[in-house]
Each structure stands twice: as structure tokens, then as C-alpha cells.
Amino acid sequence: MSFGGSRIWALALLILLAGCGPSGPTAPETVEEFITAVQSHDLDALYCLMAGASEAQELGLDDAERRTGFEAWAMALYDSYTEGRDEGWVELDEQGLVLVKLFSLGRGTYFAHTGSRSTGPDVRVLTSEVRFGYQNVDLSRFSPGTTFYVSGPPVGRVHAIRVPAGSDEVTVELLTYVELEWTLLRSPQGEGRCSGRWAVASLTSVEDSVRSTEVTWIF
Which of 31, 119, 125, 193 is 20 to 30 A from 203, alpha carbon to alpha carbon? Predict the structure, then answer.
């Protein structure tokens, strides 16, 4: 075979491999979609964005049963977050839905991806830095009686700050920095609408990365 022929075959192979490669959003894009879906309570999107949500054939359930079970499970997590927030302590789930709500990711809390690594052909681990700006909250925009929630150490602690009608002073220990680790899995290629894309399998905070500071608000 001539050199020119070899080049043509090599090009054809590259095109074939490209066509067979993973499709859909990248792992960082999937995290962004996941955060948006959590904050908007978009169960339809979360069904594909949370690893294992649409995969339960081994349980003998059909599509409708899996979807119904997923929605009940997800709504229970939302309810658990709200109850915990009001009580001052939120129990975190391994999948990350509650942590996204707790840290208000995508709703004012700054975060940035700082690393990415593969731990297998269908596993991607992303690291993120979260920086909180609670000490810069403009209290003048809150009317008396308003309650706002802030996170303190350890991760899961919630402080409810109620704006008083008169003069007062509140001192709390607040988070300033936390590192997160996202684990994403590649859904199998196939005919399903959730196939061939990344999905969030877990979200955890890195315990020894947590930083905090004491803040005093004077009303």
C-alpha cells in the first residue's frame, strides 16, 4: 500500500473513532446543568443528571415506576433540606442535591473548577473551590423580620439570621472557603434519552479544606 493510501486509511479511522466517542455535555457542563436543575427543582433534568436515577432495571421496575420512585426520593431530599435548615443542621446526601441547596451554588455563591482527572474510562472527578462572601452581605436591603440563612462549620451547620426591628448585634462563625469533589459517571451508550452523557454520582466537601471566620453584624 502506498504512503498516500495509508494516510487515507488513518484519516478514515480517526473519523470513525470520533463518531463512536462519547457525546453530549462535558463533565463541567454537566455539573453546571445539575446545579441549575437543583435550584429550579427541575426533576425532569435531574432524572438524567443524577447517576443511577434512570437505571434500575435490576429492580424489575418499568420506566414509569422508576420515574415515580425517583421523584418521590428527590422531593424527600428537598423536604429534608428545608426541615434541617430551619432546625440549624442539614443532613447531606451523597448525591449532592442538598449540598448544592445548602451552599446556594448558582445563586450568589462563587465557585470555580480547579481540577479534573479520570479514574476510569467512564469516571471523571472534578474539584471545585467555593468562596463565601457572607461578611459582605448588605444588611440594609433586608427589612425587619426578614430571615436569611448562612452556612457555618462544620459543613451542614446553618445559622438563621433574623433582622430585628431595633438595634441588636449577632456574632456567628461562618464558612469562607470549602473545596468540593464531584464524581461523575458516563451513562452507557444506547437508545435511552439519558444515554451517552455524564451524570453526577456524588458530591462531597473536602473536610480539611474548610475555612471559616467569625462575623459580627450590628443592626
Answer: 193
Q: Can you tell me the distance from the alpha carbon of 205 to that of 105, in angstroms, rounded to the nearest whole number?
A: 13
pLDDT tens digits for range 51-95: 876 555 445 566 788 888 889 999 999 999 999 999 999 999 999
Helix (H, G, I), strand (E, B) or coil at 214: strand
Query: For the chain, how many structural domains are there in total?
Result: 1
15 found inside a domain: no
pTM of the full structure: 0.82
Q: DSSP string spanning 51-88?
A: TTTT--GGGT--HHHHHHHHHHHHHHHHHHHHHHHHHT
Amino acid at 182: W
Q: Which amino acid is at 165?
A: A
The answer to whether the CB of 70 falls within 8 A of the CB of 210 is no
Place of cell 486509511: 9
